[in-house]
User: Fold these one by one.
Assistant:
Number 1:
Amino acid sequence: MQDLKANISPSKIKESNKLIKKVAIFDSGIGGLSVVKSLLDANMFEHIIYYGDTARVPYGSKDKTTIISFSLEALSFLEGFEPDLIIVACNTVSACAIPFMQENTKIPVIGVIQSGMKAIVSKHLPKTSNILVIGTQTTINSKVYQEGLQSLGFKNVQALETGLFVPLVEAGIYEGELIKAAFNHYFKDIKDIDALVLGCTHFPMLATSLREYFGKDCVFIHSGETMATYLNEHYNIAFCKRENIKLNYHASSNVAKLQESASKWLAL
Ligand code: DGL
């Protein structure tokens, strides 16, 4: 397991109190747009640069060495924009590659699992809550969430790899028969869940369908919302009216498709 404590320790930026105006956001595909949406809703930053490695999505079925190598390539691409902060809006990369990225740049790098873990603490869930973590195969196999939650004292943690959700979301399918079939396939043995950790940034796009399935009382932990909360508490942020935030999109394949998904998803 990665050292979560090391990764959630006070940032380089807070120490220097630098104002964060420009951020670069990285995901394997369109999932990180769910994090961008939360940042825009929180009026965060003056300039957001988004990069989706759409030529190589999904990352979640690839091994750790491959994910580290892709992440370092993305890092050197994003460094070229000289951002004040790099946000890894991908749980799979956050589970495997954050220390490697941090070692290879002077720019602070933060991942969604670190912020998500903090947010779980602030939800004040009883330690006996039935928590279900869903994520990609690599995220679930890394056990970063399971061990992190257990070390926080949670006793009833289940984890499920639901990687099929990623191509469905990439295809723009958020509800309907295919989603219901995928839910029935993955969740048939799952009962009485108090909290659902959406351990993949693609999954908030399925939030309406997941809410129908798990019911209104289930607490959802969403990487975008938790990242916005974490940034607010730990960084000195330049706030900006949503309509004035400059947004640039980059993709390793088919940037037009990424832009189309962004205009649909961010307008919701
Ligand atoms: N959105 C990513 C995550 O949060 C990964 C999806 C994938 O590429 O498999 O894990």
Number 2:
Amino acid sequence: MYNNWEELEKSIINCKKCKLCTGRNNIVFGEGNKEADIMLIGEGPGADEDKQGLPFVGKAGQLMNKAFQGLGIDRNKVYIANVVKCRPPGNRVPESDEAKECLDYLRNQVILVKPKIIVLLGSTALKNILGNEYGITSSRGKWIEKNGILYMPTWHPAALLRDENKKIEFWKDLKEVVEKYKEIEKR
Ligand code: URA
Ligand code: SF4
């Protein structure tokens, strides 16, 4: 466990803990407000993210940015990270050994950011953070409180590109997050 960002990021740049290290061009550490009240967790870098070293900069990310803009939230106000920091080949789902090796980094990021709300983007984030007993279809849109953090599972933004109904639900879930955030701020 690292208690500062520099050391944590340095340890990831040189990480060879799992086989995903062999295919990466860049690690995707995470990005945003390091003191954010809202943190978003995705799955892992895609081709664009691997190229730029930044999370959610491809098509799915642009869609997510639009949703935030529409709700009056600046992307820079939140913190965004992924379950794995290196791109899985062909955008496959991270395997359980890869996620397991990488999760310590994400946990460390959560400890440093201290978010009040965590948005879990899709099944990989949900299962790796809250447990395999959770399913995204039945869990999405419902708050789950654990160890003082409020979790909101929702669709992965990439799923929205294929299904218009999911777009509506995603929007609804994010709106719920923004409303909860405003409620917490007022306390
Ligand atoms: N999909 C993810 O899960 N994370 C990213 O950073 C980009 C796409
Ligand atoms: Fe290390 Fe995570 Fe990259 Fe695997 S995915 S090599 S654990 S940083």
